[in-house]
Amino acid sequence: MKNTSSNSAVIWIPRLLVGLLFIFSGAIKANDPLGFSYKLVEYFEVFHITFLNGLALTMAIVLCALEMLLGFALLIGARAVKVAWGLLLLIIFFGFLTFYSAFFKVVQTCGCFGDAIPLTPWQSFSKDMVLLALVLVLFVKRKEIKPLFSAKVGDKWLICAAVVSVGFGVYTYNFSPVIDFLPYKIGANLPDEMKIPPGAPLDEFELTYHLKNKKTGATRVMNDKEYLKSNIWKDASWEVVGDPENRLVKKGYEPKIRDLAIQDEQRNDYTKELLSSPFYSLFIIAYDLSETDKDAINRLNALAINLTDNYNIRTVLLTSNSAADAKAFAKEHKLISEIFYADGVPLKSMVRSNPGVLLIKNGTVINKWHYHSVPKYEDIVKEYLQK
């Protein structure tokens, strides 16, 4: 191991901060690469490059791995010059995206830290600017960054780090996030997550009126409080021009789940009924039936048949497809589950798998599984139904 005593605090402080933050940021997103790929698709739509949608997942895993790898390489000082260039280009790229999101109000959550630490676009941009300043220090002094190991040993560590970084993203994609930061996590009571507590602050809005004097042509602009207090609305010589502008001035309490509405084919709402049952229910989530894994659907249907026949478990298929497509799919696969419909956004948040499974009782998520890790019928019976 080489002596690092010659490294000054000017290099080591930003080196540690940038390295650890890049590793943390990459790991948090790699914990949920499918969620990060959804965010990339939003950016593709903004920049009209939707032809990249099919590569979103691969890009998500690679970008997360690259962040972790660059952060790790910086910490051990391996290939410092190339790493400094990589960090600089990456943070400039991220800074551009967050500024564009904030200034043009397009993608309102950048996904920098996944769902673990939601940031507004301006908060994300500010974070990137602080990082950029630190990276610039490292870039200027890139040739002074001393490695902790010899070049040969450092390269071996980088290869190991690359394998672990990519492998982690591949694993979490195939077997669900290691830590679930979404509102549908195990143990969450979904009806409670949808409620606004009594006394919680509500959104506050301000109306802006544009007024014009009929006699003099003079114009005035005032908010709703000024409009009422001045009694100008009683003066017939003043008229409101156009529609008042409604602006959110203070954000109120926002429930963790605010967009879940479960309906049948006739658009009758079944949300409360399905989530308030005191008995076990099996929810099969397949937000897009055209992309769902067909073999997994067949296995889950066999599981649903056994649970329904032997324990009278209610099994539900939730999808965002049209009723016609869902019926055709159910007929093709001989599904026994009841079919209900919901928007694709909450369905994607329920479980990072297509299809995925939720076991629910009294509105509480008892357990959830990626289709690769759904337990056998006998295990479900032993673990839950025979207790």
From TrEMBL:
Main location: membrane
Compartments reported by the entry: Membrane
Segments traversing the membrane: 54-76, 83-104, 124-141, 153-173
Pfam families: MauE
Alphabetic keyword roster: Membrane, Transmembrane, Transmembrane helix
Database matches in InterPro entries: Methylamine_util_MauE
GO cellular component: membrane
Boundaries of every Methylamine utilisation protein MauE domain copy: 9-139
Topology in membrane: Multi-pass membrane protein
Domain of life of the source: Bacteria
A Gene Ontology BP annotation from the UniProt entry: methylamine metabolic process
UniProt protein name: Methylamine utilisation protein MauE domain-containing protein
Protein's organism: Mucilaginibacter gossypii
Species classification: Bacteria, Pseudomonadati, Bacteroidota, Sphingobacteriia, Sphingobacteriales
